[in-house]
Every structure is written in C-alpha cells, then in structure tokens.
Specification:
2 domains, mainly beta, OB fold (Dihydrolipoamide Acetyltransferase, E2P), 5-stranded antiparallel beta sheet
Amino acid sequence: MVVPSPTYEEQLKAYEGRAATVAGVGKDPVNEPMIRHWCEAMGDTNPAYAGPDAMAPPTMLQVWTMGGLSGHTGRSEAYDELFALLDGAGYTSVVATDCEQEYLRPLRPGDEITFDALIESVSGRKTTKLGTGYFVTTRMDVRAGGELAGTHRFRILKYAPAQRNQRKRTEQPSPKDSSNPKSRRPRPVINRDNAGFWEGVARHQLLIQRCGGCGALRFPWLPGCNACGCLEWDTVEASGDGTVYSYVVMHHPSFPAFDPPYAVGLVELSEGVRMVSNVVGVPYDKVRIGMPVRLEFQRYDEELELPVFRPGGTGEGGGG
C-alpha cells in the first residue's frame, strides 16, 4: 500500500506544540532603569512603578525576554524550519497582527526571568487584504524565580502579498476626489469610549478627558485613569496651542487618500497632553521639533472633518 505524503497544511500543523525556545534566560533582571524608561516613553506616572517597593508595569512582560541583537540561547530549530517551509511556498512576507498577555504575579526589581516558548497554533490558509497566508501563534510562559508570572501570546501573519494594480501615479485618482470611495480618508473607529471626542470635533472643539479622582488630564480617551484608576471623568476644551514634540515624514506606502511625502506630528498641547495629527500648511521638510502650532479643523469630504495643526503662534480660545 502506498502511503500518501502529507499535505502542505498537514506539514504546517505538525509544528503545533513544538518548542520555539527552551529554558530561555532574560538578559537582565527586572530593573528600575528599564522601568523608568518605559514609563517615560508611555507617559505613565503611576506611583506603583517608582520607589523602593516599585513593580514593573505588567505590559512590560515581553520586555524582560527580549534577546536584543545577539539573540538568546535555547532557541529551537522548529520556528526556523516552519518559516522556511512557509517561505519556500511563497509566503515570504510577515506582519505582526496582535498579542495577548495574562498576568499572574507582579514583577519587581531584582527578579530573574526565565521563559519557554512554543508554537501554539498554525491556522488554515486565510485570505486578507494584504494577501493570502497563515497565522502563526507563539505562546511564551514567563517565570520569575521559577514561578509563573505571566503568559504572552504573539501572532503573526506569514503571507504572499496580494497582486495590486501598479498604475502610474498620474493615473491614480486624485486624493481630493471625494466622489471615489477608495480615495477617501479612512473613517475613524468610533466606540463608547471615544464617542464624546468625535462629538466635540463635530462642534469644532478638541476635548481632553480630566480624571474625576486625581484631576489628571489624559489623551487619547480611555475608560479609566491610568494614574489612579478612577472611572469618573469630565472634559476640558483644549486651547488649541501646542508645539511639535516629535514627527515622522511618511513616504511609503502610498494610499489613494494621501499624497506622500507628508508630515505626521506628535503635538504636545499647552495643557500637557500629546496627540498625533497631521502638520499642514508647511512643506514636510520644514517641520521641526519645538515648532509652535495651532489647532484647526480641516474637512476632507462631506462626512469627515479632522483636527490638524498648522504652524502659528499662541492664539485665543479653543477651536472655533
């Protein structure tokens, strides 16, 4: 009897449950400098993350397992073999899609980190806007002093890029042609946590949340305060003045609704919070950190109006 060779997807499924890393060891113990850098980057001022009894922010779980440029010992060949199998079939592109974390105990400075990782699942073939491919989920169990501290699941898509119409730029619809749905700016995702912000935009107001417990201002909108945890809040209207805290110039990819290159700024408002928006009214290569900017509302089509920033000095009042 001739035994048929396994199908391609059966070969992929055979990697489920195989180890990706065995007995990995964190490059550094949990330490205060890395916690401080993380909190500064995130703008997180929670007092639980500072002082002699500090704990690490739970979302830093993966940080303590990163191998840096030199990598880790204990990495198995299974992950590389799986990637080679996918690459060989033309699924050569990769994009991270999401992660899930579960926290079982706090991590504190001095904790020595060890971890094991396995290939938890390989999906069937999926077709996405990016292309056709397979979702690969890796589960990592993170331990401190031998005790399970948390679990991190990381999911990627290995895919073959979809064939796109490579028309010349001159043949593409104008970004300002709002009659063509494909040339319209993406619609914002509005939910119960941020609906009030978009209602303010419709009234030409830039609203910032203010915690009902500690009074801290926060942006973007969140269901609760990341400083004290209070769920009560109200809003204050931004004056509209700010400065460019940081920025990037977008060259690629090119979408019909955008006309690269263009500047995307991280603007620090005079109230102290920061928001991401376009910097308009100035060439992209003239945007500078520290540049004073002023809020305005720019209409892109009959349905969409967005807060943007234009170079300018201090003015009076909020967005009118």
